[in-house]
Design a protein that fits this description.
The complex is a heterodimer.
Chain A (H helix, E strand, L loop, with lengths): L6 E9 L6 H9 L5 E6 L3 E6 L11 H6 L2 H17 L11 E7 L4 H12 L12 H5 L3 H10 L5 E5 L4 H14 L5 E8 L5 H9 L28 E9 H6 L6 E10 L9 H14 L9 E3 L6 H15 L9 E3 L2 H4 L6 H9 L2 H4 L20 E2 L12 E8 L3 E8 L2
Parallel strand pairs in A: 4-5, 4-6, 9-10, 9-12, 10-11
Antiparallel strand pairs in A: 1-7, 1-8, 2-3, 6-7, 8-13, 12-13
Helix pairs in contact in A: 3-6, 7-13, 10-11
Chain B lengths: L2 H15 L14 H4 L4 H15 L14 H12 L3
Helix pairs in contact in B: 1-3, 1-4
Classes of the chains: A alpha/beta, B mainly alpha.
């Protein structure tokens, strides 16, 4: 890393459609358990989604859950779980030196849609518009709800980064630690997107919403029969600390963030650009002082859209395709299990792969029955079954989003 | 609505707004804020529910009339007597 400050991951809190903590999530990924199920939402009707079933009231009063948002409840659950996992003494830690940095794809659509729906029964009389509308829809809301819940008086904000946002939250947390702005960062991403009909209708209008008679088979990145995205909710928040601080307090370090990069395609609202993605991957490698030969596992972004998957493979070939000697790179895809968790996707997908440093396994991509020849990757795409006995020392985590935002985070075994 | 029905309606709304609080033993004369975890946004929630469920408009200058269960019933009785 070009900064002398090393960054450690010391805790993970998450909720995914197939697990409500790292252990459960990892077990589902290793055992091929999907979290995609039938789902129905107003105006749109029956569809599929990745739905979480975490216990909202474990860390939140019912009143606070009622007054807050789904993204807030997800963030509060994940933040509390991350703190517990990290073993950081709480609340005796200096809470003015803790920061909360959460990636979001969008925010406020759920509340606005609900308010207009509610207003309809009152003939659009604005006296019935909720006084909670503004605190629920301000862009910092999910991160702010975490600070209210936990008494954190350090900085908090969200980072709007479309589907790259989970990685961006992690990067922001790492950067603020490097700058010395905080001593601990709760960083990651959250998404409540399945509660807005607009996102389903929007992807449907783009011909990019997945469907399948068997829900768990609908999310099929890199497969010839893929037909779009399965939308999911969820969240993953990491406890990040400066490496030296973590070691000093005797924390168990799960991984070290050794590189990252973010750039822009600068050419289209929705169509990805393989050349810019390649540059992003290479920039992350440069920051880590690594080459493709140093990467063991690539957690791909692929969402199951025809063009998006092809472009990412092109980018990975351009970034990795140069001479690599005998080194084998493994590739997998977490969205095939849980769908696309939007602002949480990058963080959740990294979390799902982190345990491979310890358990020496690479979770597969499921639903990969007819690999698309246009999706050839420069290494081994792990399909169908978990690959055991693999030495994983580095993970490269891709996360890309609309308006051409690309992000890569690189994590090393501690 | 009778006074008893109005009192129950107010208790039901408060229970909805404050799901963590026990509203079964509220002292009628005592200030609600002294008995419940009730902040200003919750209070606006109660005003909104009265509007939504019973069509009652409570102007801001009348908010003090809703300080206790007893004063709420006194205030709402003429507004709800024909409902």
């Amino acid at each position: 890393m070009h900064s002398a400050v090393r960054i450690a991951i010391t805790g993970v809190g998450l909720t995914a459609p197939n697990g409500n903590n790292l252990e459960e999530f990892r077990a589902s990924l290793l055992n091929g358990v999907s979290g995609v199920r039938p789902y129905s939402i107003r105006y749109f009707g029956d569809t599929l989604a990745g739905v979480c079933d975490f216990d909202v009231t474990r860390y939140q009063k019912r009143k606070d859950a009622r007054n807050g948002t789904r993204a807030g409840s997800i963030a509060i659950y994940c933040a509390n779980e991350a703190i517990n996992y990290s073993g950081l003494r709480w609340p005796s830690a200096d809470l003015s030196r803790v920061g909360v940095y959460l990636g979001i794809t969008e925010h406020g659509n759920v509340e606005t849609e609900s308010e207009i729906h509610n207003l309809r029964q009152f003939d659009y009389d604005l006296r019935y518009w909720s006084h909670f509308h503004n605190p629920r829809t301000v862009a910092n809301s999910p991160a702010g709800q975490v600070t209210v819940n936990l008494g954190i008086t350090g900085p908090h904000y969200t980072i709007g980064g479309a589907c790259a946002a989970g990685n961006l939250g992690i990067m922001q947390g790492a950067q603020q630690l490097m700058l010395g702005e905080v001593d601990a960062a709760l960083a990651g991403g959250v998404s409540e997107s399945i509660h807005t009909f607009g996102i389903f209708a929007g992807f449907q209008s783009q011909n990019a919403l997945a469907c399948h008679v068997e829900p768990e088979r609908a999310s099929r990145p890199f497969d010839q029969q893929r037909n779009g995205i399965v939308i999911a909710e969820g969240g993953a928040i990491f406890m990040l600390e400066r490496y030296d601080d973590a070691v000093r307090r005797g924390a168990a370090v799960l991984g070290e963030i050794v590189g990252y990069a973010c750039n822009s395609d600068a050419n289209d609202f929705v169509l990805p650009d393989a050349a810019r993605q390649t540059e992003c991957i290479k920039a992350a490698l440069r920051r880590a002082d690594m080459t493709p030969e140093d990467i063991d596992l690539v957690s791909t972004h692929a969402t199951g859209t025809e063009l998006g998957d092809i472009r990412e493979c092109q980018a990975l070939n351009m970034a990795f395709g140069e001479a690599r000697g005998d080194h084998q790179v493994y590739f997998n895809n977490t969205k095939s299990f849980i769908g696309h968790a939007m602002g949480a996707a990058g963080a959740l997908e990294l979390a799902g792969n982190l345990p491979s440093f310890e358990d020496q396994a690479v979770h597969p991509s499921i639903n990969l029955e007819h690999p698309d020849p246009q999706c050839k990757l420069p290494g081994c795409l792990v399909a169908g079954r978990t690959l055991p006995n693999i030495q994983v020392n580095t993970i490269l985590n891709n996360s890309f989003g609309m308006l051409g935002i690309n992000s890569v985070v690189l994590v090393k075994k501690p | 609505m009778t006074r008893e029905e109005i009192k129950q309606a107010v208790i039901d709304i408060i229970s909805e707004v404050l799901p963590d609080d026990d509203c079964s033993q509220l002292e009628p004369e005592k200030d609600l804020r002294e008995q419940l975890d009730l902040d200003s946004m919750d209070f606006l929630d109660i005003v909104m529910e009265l509007r939504k469920q019973y069509g009652v408009e409570v102007p801001e200058e009348d908010y003090p009339q809703l300080a206790s269960l007893q004063s709420s019933v006194d205030y709402l009785e003429p507004k709800l007597k024909d409902k």
